[in-house]
Design a protein that fits this description.
single chain; mainly beta; 6-stranded mixed β-sheet; 6 helices; globular; Cupredoxin; copper ion binding; oxidoreductase activity; Cu-oxidase_C
Length: 571
């Protein structure tokens, strides 16, 4: 077993590869457990907590810091944690998904060591396997600017994390079983509540049950980091009588726009500035579902996440109806808002040079993937598919097989159709080649009748276009190639497409998935293998010293040698 001291040595070895970069080690020890007493919606159920907390603890880092998280799995199932939006530069070994890591088995622990390399922004973490995310286990990540980099807005009085997500009163194991049956799987289509930071909505008749509240002082400006940690629903967020100034999304500073409300899709994160410029009172904070179809109108009306913005000297409670938002089925409103979210080209972010230094105005595309997300049926079982291929998770992680046997016996490279849809739905272990340091265009086509959102680990992509119907090459004429925002999760509207550009400069095995949990769990994902054959050790990292083995390598002895001696942590 690798000692904690050895892992600190590994962490420092990772950090000192970056000469001239100031960074620190941030150490967390997490105990992941099941709690049956929290009961967010009054029904007894299993909630996944970290150190007894739901949501879990904040990871508060600065650009280039090394984050060390020792995870103890005290639940009764295998566990992995993924770091949504953290790019794991040159180090997909720490990504925490089924294709990169062996699971942390019950009663054991494993330590993640990763770096917030050249990143700033608002992100989240959550459990990535066994449908665990529907039971919690998620939490916030902040990556702050280094002091030497100017932030494009005055320092706020304080910052708040708001993790908002749909929630089910049914226990996660029952939900997981139900989605394998076409009729029962509909139970997962309509959540029972929308929670703010794990707390039930405000209800004046049951205030004692607890709701989320944020205290502000009149005249001060605050940064709210808003994330959709749900599994099904997009939502529209707004604060009664207050404007919001959008400033950042998933590691990119945006051109600042003033909003009455903001659509946040599953897996997405934003930062907004809110100035407490109203009378000293209490005000509703509201999240309501977007583009969600149901025949049970009473259910959809009750699905409101409600918190309170509380002025420090307020003597009154919230009053009146909650503020109305846009029509939840107004697709054009949502698309136009998405198009208005653009990249601030003149400010620095993780580096002093402007974000706009890295632009897509004159790139040469090396590859194009056209990916249709839809539902299918295989051998009578409901599945979700990409181009009619439903991902089937092998027992051996792809990255492990790639490293030691060149994938043999686990996957066949480039058997997945990247430009066409197969005639019939079938299982596959979908791994495609991404050309190292080439520009990849991905067109996501949503063949579902509800919202979808897609995420790519390891990168930020430039969101260049949204369109209706089928995509054709002529659609490139409509792309925004001047200031498209860079992010890692993008929404795709029903019957429509979204196009992104991504520069594949990060070697590794990278997960491309639907962020909607049922879609992901039932096969709407693939992996992009970005390979650099340069043996220079400054390229992709070697496997970590504490590498877990499983699948075809379960009884093997890890072939990893110890890293070269390095200074002790803190020296």
């Amino acid at each position: 077993m690798v000692s904690i001291k050895g892992l600190f040595v590994y962490a420092i070895s990772l950090a000192i590869l970056l000469t001239g970069v100031n960074c620190i080690d941030i150490y967390h020890e997490w105990i992941v457990s099941i709690d049956t007493t929290i009961n967010p919606v009054s029904s007894p159920q299993s909630v996944i907590t970290i150190n007894g907390m739901f949501p879990g603890p904040l990871i508060n880092a600065t650009t280039n810091d090394v984050v060390i998280v020792n995870v103890f799995n005290n639940i009764d199932e295998s566990l992995l944690i993924t770091w949504n939006g953290i790019q794991q530069r040159l180090n997909s070994w720490q990504d925490g998904v089924s294709g990169t890591n062996c699971a942390i088995e019950p009663g054991t622990n494993w330590t993640y060591v990763f770096q917030a390399k050249d990143q700033i922004g608002t992100f989240t973490y959550f459990p990535s396997i066994n449908f665990h995310k529907v039971a919690g286990g998620y939490g916030p990540i902040r990556v702050n600017n280094r002091n030497v980099i100017a932030v494009p807005f005055p320092k706020p009085e304080a910052e708040f994390d708001i993790l908002i997500g749909d929630w089910f009163r049914t226990d996660y194991k029952s939900l997981r079983s139900s989605i394998h049956d076409r009729q029962s799987s509909q139970l997962f289509d309509i959540p029972d509540a929308i929670l703010m930071n794990g707390k039930r909505p405000y209800d004046e008749l049951s205030i004692s049950k607890g709701h989320e509240s944020f205290t502000v002082s009149k005249g001060m400006t605050y940064r709210f980091r808003i994330s959709n940690v749900g599994t099904v629903m997009s939502f529209n967020f707004r604060i009664q009588n207050h404007k919001m100034v959008l400033v950042e999304t998933e590691g990119s500073y945006t051109n600042q726009i003033t909003l009455d409300s903001l659509d946040v899709h599953v897996g997405q994160s934003y930062s907004v500035l809110v100035t407490a410029d109203q009378n000293e009172a209490d005000y509703f904070m509201v999240a309501t579902p977007k583009m969600f179809k149901t025949n049970e109108s009473s259910d959809i009306e009750s699905l409101e996440g409600i918190g309170v913005l509380h002025y420090a000297n307020s003597l009154t409670t919230v009053s009146g109806p909650v503020p109305a938002g846009p029509d939840p089925f107004d697709t054009e409103f949502s698309v136009n808002q998405a198009k208005s979210i653009t990249w601030n080209l003149t400010t620095g972010a993780a580096r002093p040079n402007p974000q706009g230094t890295f632009n897509v105005s004159n790139v040469t595309l090396a590859q194009t993937f056209i990916l249709h997300g839809s539902q299918g049926e295989i051998n009578g079982w409901p599945r979700y598919v990409v181009n009619n291929v439903s991902y089937l998770t092998p027992e051996t992680p792809l990255k492990l097989a790639d490293m030691f046997v060149n994938g043999s016996g686990v996957y066949q490279l480039d058997q997945f159709p990247t430009h066409s849809v197969n005639d019939a739905a079938a299982y596959g272990v979908s791994v495609v080649s991404g050309i190292h340091k080439g520009w990849l265009e991905i067109v996501f086509k949503n063949d579902h009748d509800v919202m979808d959102s897609w995420h790519l680990d390891g990168f930020g992509f430039h969101v260049v276009g949204f369109g209706n119907g089928d995509w054709t090459p002529a659609a490139r004429e409509t792309y925004n190639i001047f200031d498209p925002v860079v992010r890692s999760t993008v929404q795709v509207y029903p019957g429509r497409w979204t196009a992104v550009y991504v520069f594949l400069d990060n070697p590794g095995m990278w997960n491309l998935r639907s962020q909607h949990l049922k879609n992901w769990y039932l096969g709407q994902e693939l992996f992009i293998r970005v390979f650099d054959d340069n043996p220079n050790p400054a390229k992709e990292r070697q496997p970590p010293q504490n590498l877990l083995l499983c699948g075809m390598f379960e009884s093997s002895i890890s072939p990893i040698s110890s890293p070269a001696p390095a200074p002790q942590a803190g020296m």
